[in-house]
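Worked problem 6 (solution included).
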Amino acid sequence: MTYFTDDHKLKPRQSRAGKKREYYAYFTLIFLATLPLACLTWTLSATRRMELPERGPIKAAWRQAQFITPRIFSA
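Solution. The predicted structure is:
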């Protein structure tokens, strides 16, 4: 027979604000990491086509960060 006591406590869950801060910290790091590559890609695309691409480098890096960050938290 198994005996369960009231002293057995589970780990407290991380608060919602803490998770939000962690998400934004990861988002910022990923955004800053993808920004140089997005700028390079944007510049190369602009020089090849001789016209400005539809999305700017900041918007492209932002979308990449929006795609990558939730995948980290779902794992």
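Discussion: Residues 34-75 form one domain.
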